[in-house]
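Quick start: what a row looks like.
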Amino acid sequence: MKRTILSSAFLLAATLTHAQLTLEECQRQAQANYPLVRRYSLIEKAREYDLSNAGKGYLPRFSLSGKATYQNDITELPVKLPDVDIKTAPKDQYQLMLEVQQTLWDGGDIRTQKQLARAASEVDLQKQQVDMYALNDRINQLFFGILLLDERLKQNQLLLDDLERTHRQVSHYMANGIASQSDLDAVSVERLHTRQQRVELETSRQAYLAMLSAFIGKPVSPEEALLKPAVEESGEMEQRIYNRPELRLFDAQQAQLGVQENVLNARLMPRFGLFVQGAYGNPGLNILKDEFNAWYMAGVRMSWNFGSLYTLKNDRRRIDNSRRLIETGRDVFLFNTRLQVTRQDAAVLSMRRQMKDDEEIIRLRRNIRCAAEAKVENGTLTVTDLLREITNENLAYQAKALHEVQLLMGICELRYLLPLDNPSASDSSSLKTLNNNN
């Protein structure tokens, strides 16, 4: 009872004196502060660039070419007329030409290139979501590690208080001739050992706080209290597994393969376009005229490349193979996640069952310790035996605190494995807004 009152008072004082930091706040700040968050804006910009480049396929294309050649023979008339000098083209020829091409129909190639850019951007975005979601698990480990250390520090302080009280009692027993100096020394050794444990726990807590501060981007003072999350389990676990961002990554990859099939089909289509050629050279369009002049030509051009037919079957097989690989990856992920859920659910159930007996164990250990104190006072039990009972009682309190934190951590781990909602849709927009503001 005394321990419960002291523990409650300690929590109340910490709550009133210092601000409390929640798990959700740590996760949100870590998501906003993590360097990887800058990839959101980079992915968005890359998609805009790719879409812009693909859309420019409808703009006119200009090309400038020139040539200077010499040939060993030229075109001549097969007959010769008397007194008629028929000029021929020179053997050295020169040409400078500017050509303008305008696409009329490209078989859907530009449209599929835009689709491919969007699909690739969506895959990158979902990969980003998976990486950012995994950050929550790291924050959970740090947060609950600090909570566990806090509980151990509380129990350590209570044990020190008990040992101080025992030290005073043994000193009193020595004055009455019930205990000896060695008994007092045993209590002192146990007290020093408990203080050493406190130093170790405080050092570990400082290290955990430093790592948490690095993740959330602001210092967390040692006096700042971490609020235990109020988490509840929810049904429909099998349905909640489909809220994981990894599954949306698999969907995005499948969609990207579908667009790649459209690209293959677009390559089989003919192309139609307009062209205008303007040139200056010798000879011009009249090859029988040996002089420099300018000329132009305009028309409609159709091109149909059948080279892609050679690899079309293998390209489609490769896409089908990639699709099966993605489906296999999805099945493996679901299988492993269900195994983790089964294991974690069993751990939560185990903690709940153990916690039912924690209070009774503490009550019995308290009775044993009180009986041991009475026996020491009566001279029927050694101080060493009393110290063992005090330690056992403290271990019972530690076990109860450990089970409470482990239960909360197990439920949070289940919530990480089976999120209650879609973490990608809500988090990505807010994170991109934070990143743009920064």
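That is the whole record. Confidence is low (pLDDT under 50) at residues 1-17, 425-438. The chain is about 65% helix and 10% strand.
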